[in-house]
Amino acid sequence: MPKRILTGTVTSTANKQTVTVQIVRRFKHPVLQKTIKKSKKYRAHDEHEQFNVGDSVMIRECAPKSKTKRWEIMTEEMIAEHEKQRAEVAAANLKAEAEAAH
């Protein structure tokens, strides 16, 4: 099963190797059709303590690192690898669609 990846803003760096990331999601209410904004905070592992409050970061699911940490901050290498995998999957899908059309 693929790991979930979320984008948010660092709100706290009070603990060692841990940052708190606030994720904001917007959706339309099913009945009222009004746009609603909800937020949730996640605690993420920051190995090298390189992020500060206000930084925009990507986090992904991982094995539990502590009682409350189930996420880790994605480094530049992780993001590049993720983008490469997405490109490969997109290319494979285009190829499959082209073959199905013939």
From TrEMBL:
GO terms for biological process: translation. Keywords: Ribonucleoprotein, Ribosomal protein, RNA-binding, rRNA-binding. The keyword Cytoplasm does not apply. The keyword rRNA-binding applies. GO terms for molecular function: rRNA binding; structural constituent of ribosome. One of its GO terms (cellular component) is cytosolic small ribosomal subunit. One of the primary rRNA binding proteins, it binds specifically to the 5'-end of 16S ribosomal RNA. Belongs to the universal ribosomal protein uS17 family. Part of the 30S ribosomal subunit. This is Small ribosomal subunit protein uS17. It comes from Antarctobacter heliothermus. The lineage of its organism: Bacteria, Pseudomonadati, Pseudomonadota, Alphaproteobacteria, Rhodobacterales.
